[in-house]
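Researcher: I'd like a candidate sequence for this fold, 261 residues long. If you have to choose between options at a position, lean toward the conservative one.
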């Protein structure tokens, strides 16, 4: 709830075109950093930080790369060197061959060293929870996110509209409980699938037992004396198996769907 209240407050201060504002301020941050313009960098960063959560359109690859570069610079200025390296790793992954110009990070500069140390690591982790319309990660539909890099995350509603945009450095930073109604985990989905199949098989077997019972009962009405015992046993076995298998089917279904796997 707290996240939604903050989001509503942020939306009230959103620019008319958040995506354009993000694009403009990200570029201004690079220019100001290159020119050692601290005040200009702070102004551009403030506008960038305000506009990014307001974005309600899908971001293209160039915008995503610009966001990563802006975040790498902002984290560097904040002294968050490890996080800055994670953002540069995303830049390398998304724009292979791109390098910071000398005006931005001259040889021997710490920023350049962080860029050189960054690696486009391919390890990813799956987000167990997802919004109705799915996730957009770095501009592409995806349910996985990088483990050792930053990523631009967008959430889609059931109609495919963006209702969240944010920059995350790890899965732990995602306000996922506020964004997604908890759904079944992969383990729960698997358990339910198997449990439902088992319950279906047992229910089918229970119906066979019931059929045996009904058939024996019908034949008993017209059976000869020497057939009564055999048909009685058949009816009893059919009834017991039908009840037992039916109970097992119900138990399997309940366990599969009621247990919080």
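Model: Candidate sequence:
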């Amino acid at each position: 709830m707290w996240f939604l209240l903050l989001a509503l407050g942020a939306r009230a201060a959103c620019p008319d075109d958040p995506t354009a504002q993000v694009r403009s301020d990200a570029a201004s941050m690079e220019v100001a950093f290159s020119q050692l313009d601290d005040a200009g960098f702070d102004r551009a960063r403030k506008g960038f930080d305000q506009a990014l959560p307001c974005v309600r359109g899908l971001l293209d690859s160039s915008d995503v790369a610009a966001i990563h570069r802006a975040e790498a610079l902002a984290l560097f200025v904040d002294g968050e060197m490890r996080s800055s390296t994670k953002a540069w790793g995303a830049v390398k992954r998304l724009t292979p061959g791109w390098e910071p110009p000398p005006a931005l990070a001259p040889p021997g500069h710490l920023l350049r060293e962080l860029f050189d140390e960054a690696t486009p690591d391919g390890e990813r982790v799956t987000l167990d929870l997802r919004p109705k319309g799915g996730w957009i990660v770095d501009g592409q539909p995806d349910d996985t996110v990088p483990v050792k890099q930053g990523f631009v995350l967008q959430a889609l509603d059931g109609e495919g509209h963006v209702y969240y945009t944010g920059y995350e450095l790890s899965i732990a930073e995602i306000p996922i409980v506020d964004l997604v109604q908890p759904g079944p985990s992969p383990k729960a989905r698997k358990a339910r699938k198997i449990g439902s199949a088992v319950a279906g098989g047992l229910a089918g077997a229970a119906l066979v037992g019931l059929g045996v019972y009904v058939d024996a009962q019908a034949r008993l009405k017209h059976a000869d004396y020497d057939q009564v015992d055999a048909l009685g046993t058949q009816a009893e076995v059919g009834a017991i198996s039908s009840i037992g298998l039916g109970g097992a089917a119900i138990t399997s279904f309940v366990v599969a769907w009621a247990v919080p796997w």
